[in-house]
Amino acid sequence: MAKRIDVSGLSAYYGSHLAIEDISMTVEPRSVTAFIGPSGCGKSTFLRTLNRMHEVTPGGRVEGKVLLDDENLYGSHVDPVTVRRTVGMVFQRPNPFPTMSIFDNVAAGLKLNGSYKKGRLADVVEKSLRGANLWNEVKDRLNKPGSGLSGGQQQRLCIARAIAVEPDVLLMDEPCSALDPISTLAIEDLIGELKERFTIVIVTHNMQQAARVSDRTAFFNLAAVGKPGKLVEIDETERIFSNPSVQATEDYISGRFG
Amino acid sequence: MASSTPIDTPPVPPVQRKRARPKASGRAGDKIFLGLSRGSGILLLVIMASIAVFLTYRATLAVSKDEGNFFTTLDWNPVGDKPVFGIAVLLFGTIVSSIIAMAIAVPIAVGIALFISHYAPRKLAAPLAYVVDLLAAVPSIVYGIWGALFLVPYLEGLNLWLDQFFGWTYVLEKTEVGVARSLFTVGILLAIMILPIVTSVSREVFLQVPKMNEEAALALGATRWEVIRLSVLPFGRSGVISASMLGLGRALGETMAVATVLSPSFVISAHVLNPGGGTFAQNIAAKFDEADQFGRDALIASGLVLFILTLLVNGAARLIIARRKEYSGANA
Predict the structure, then answer these.
(1) I need a labelling partner for B53 at 20 to 30 A (CA). Which of A173, B47, B289, B310 fits?
(2) In this predicted complex, what is the ipTM?
(3) Do B272 and B172 form a contact (C-beta atoms < 8 A)?
(4) Number of domains comprising chain B
């Protein structure tokens, strides 16, 4: 439940291309950490190294350590499948399983785990959908396909699916960038509630969003196109947006960038 | 999204509307292209209609003089004053051999397609896909010769084994001695022949599964097989059905390979290992040369039934696909 992430000396490659270089940071449990930075700076790549999704990409490999509490996710005996069961992820575009009903979508992760009791499944699905603030909208049509919901509802369905397995960490890769402002607001409210139970890391292009939802903010940057992305600084969100310690951060925040 | 901002869609300047051409059809190139494409469409309908009319006309001539029952008679003797012929054996043989072919080919084809699209390293996937496609380039008479000279003698051992251990199923009981020129052998041969088309269509569909669908499963902690079960197979289902129907269409109509392998006889037997039986296409190929005018009409009548059978199969496939549309990956 809600573990601390400790990253040290992490670099990620696509084939021979170094995408992010030597990143170290600590993500506190029961808090929201936002990653901001220009396109191509590697913040999504970095996020995907936290649940070993990066290596799914052909040629993707990672150097360095990611400690979840005290366990190294990149230890030689660690199975990436197990890692992904404890570090959940929500993607940029809502991606419910199109052939499954709403109920089955939420139950999918539990069924994979095999760690549920038959009678309890319905309870967990309801709890997860309530946790994602979606229950009241879908309780009458749990057997309808998830792809029939609106974009914002689909994204909350994906969040319900991710939290149903009670992960230690929830990663969100620009979860609102495909949504309208109302749905965005619903997700942001939800993030505020979820951080009571989970460690949340969110990548966002929207700096107001980072300021609204996060406790800490990390700013990523790259020296030039083709150069690896680096972590510039990570600090309390308030401090990053009012008085950052690095000039580049201030330039980016205030829009005086590139 | 940038395109949804009002700035990106400037109002159409009124100047452009003033002398609007009567659409684009005023230009010669458009007229020619329209004519060509419309003509092609009409030509297709005309060809289909004339085939149907021709088949129906000649078939009616023959069937009206049939002294037996066209659907139930177990005989094919359209000569003399009392011509007697029926399609029961042909219908049975065609369907049974095709079902055997599908039962063998579809699982293997899906397996190969999944291996090529999701398991094999890239260096292996491309050559393997090429080899499978190469199977489709072998002419069917070559398959027939191979089937008759290789498959038939080598399947006898398998037939005995099946008979010994699965004879209790009745279907796999071999009650007649004789070489394996049976519907079962035909089914195996047809399976090999339809394997490439089913494989390559399935492979294309599996490769089109959106990355985000697969990542949804991966991020939940799915193993490779679970990703396939949760994302790939549901997305590819309608494609696999279409691929199978393409294969079935070929199996139903396959002529030379079946004619070379099967030892035809006009009996219906559920013992698929027994030699004998017949299919529509095989029967036509075997008898067309020696048949007189009336005999040919009778064969055409059987061809019409095959034509209708194929239409029904395709229609059923479309129904299956359409009914699952709500759940298909297409509206993701």
Answers:
(1) B289
(2) 0.88
(3) yes
(4) 1
